[in-house]
Design brief:
- This protein has 2 domains: 93 residues, Disulphide bond isomerase, DsbC/G, N-terminal (Nuclear Transport Factor 2, Chain: A, Roll); 137 residues, Glutaredoxin (3-Layer(aba) Sandwich), CATH 3.40.30.
- The longest helix has 32 residues.
- It is of the alpha+beta class and 237 residues long.
- The two termini are 46 Å apart.
- 23% of the residues are buried.
- The protein is elongated, with a radius of gyration of 23 Å.
- 41% of the residues lie in helices and 20% in strands.
C-alpha cells in the first residue's frame, strides 16, 4: 500500500511537471512569434484533445495547439451538450459580485418597499436605455442603483455631469430619460462619473444599458418589464 501511494505521488508529480513544461512552451512560442500579443495570463487544457485555452487581458479567450503553432479566435461549442464553452468561460471571468459594485458612485431610485435590487450602467443619450427606463418605471418594490456611464458622445458626458450635480439626481435622470426634460446645467465634483467610465472598461461593460442583479448575473441590453420581473424573481444573493 505504501509503495502504491509513493508511485501515485511520483506519477502526479511527473504529470504536473509535464503540464508546466507544456505551458512554458506555449507561452514562449507565442511571445516569440507574436510579439504584439499581450502578455498571457493563463494557459489551460480544454475538453478538446490537444487544444489549449490561452487567456489574455483578463477575459479574452484564444485557443492554440500544444506547440503554439496556431492561434484560434472564436467559440468552442460542445455539440453533445449544445453549450458554447467559450461564452460560459467569459461569463465566469467577467462575473461581478453585486456587493463589489462601487455603489458610492451611483445614485439610487427606490420604488415601493425597495426590497428587490438591481444596478444599471446607462448613457443619458442611449435610446435603448430610455426604453429600458420606461419599462422599469412599471416595476414596483425595487431599489435601482444607477451608474452614469457616458460612452456615446461628449454630450453624454455633459448630461451625466448635469444629472450627477443636480439637487435630486434621480428626478433629473428620470425627467430626461422618461419625460425628455433636459437636465439643467450644473457643476460640482463629478469624479464619480469618470470613475464609472474607468470601472466599466475594466469590467468589460461595452454597451448600455448593462444590468446587474443581486445573484451576479449580467444582462447586456434593454429588456422588457416581464423579463425584468423574471430576473428579479430568480436572482438570489
Amino acid at each position: 500500500m505504501k509503495l502504491l501511494k509513493t508511485l501515485l505521488i511520483a506519477l502526479l508529480a511527473a504529470v504536473s511537471v509535464a503540464a508546466l513544461a507544456q505551458e512554458a512552451t506555449i507561452r514562449k512560442n507565442l511571445a516569440e512569434r507574436l510579439p504584439n500579443l499581450p502578455a498571457v495570463d493563463e494557459v489551460s487544457k480544454t475538453p478538446m484533445p490537444g487544444i489549449y485555452e490561452v487567456r489574455i487581458n483578463h477575459s479574452d479567450i484564444f485557443y492554440t495547439d500544444a506547440e503554439g503553432n496556431y492561434l484560434i479566435q472564436g467559440s468552442m461549442i460542445d455539440t453533445k451538450a449544445r453549450v458554447d464553452l467559450t461564452e460560459q468561460r467569459v461569463e465566469k471571468l467577467t462575473a461581478i459580485s453585486f456587493k463589489d459594485l462601487p455603489l458610492k458612485d451611483a445614485f439610487t431610485i427606490v420604488r415601493g418597499n425597495g426590497k428587490r435590487k438591481l444596478a444599471v450602467f446607462e448613457d443619458p443619450n442611449c435610446g435603448y436605455c430610455k426604453r429600458f427606463e420606461r419599462d422599469l418605471a412599471k416595476i414596483d418594490n425595487v431599489t435601482v442603483h444607477v451608474f452614469l456611464y457616458p460612452i456615446l458622445s461628449a454630450d453624454s458626458g455633459e448630461k451625466s455631469r448635469d444629472i450627477w450635480c443636480a439637487k435630486d439626481k434621480g428626478k433629473a435622470f428620470l425627467d430626461w430619460m422618461v419625460r425628455d426634460v433636459t437636465p439643467a446645467k450644473a457643476n460640482c465634483d463629478a469624479a464619480a462619473v469618470a470613475r464609472n467610465f474607468e470601472y466599466g472598461k475594466k469590467a468589460r461593460i461595452t454597451g448600455t444599458p448593462t444590468i446587474f442583479f443581486v445573484d451576479g448575473s449580467r444582462v447586456p441590453g434593454a429588456i422588457g418589464t416581464a423579463q425584468i420581473e423574471k430576473q428579479l424573481a430568480e436572482a438570489k444573493p
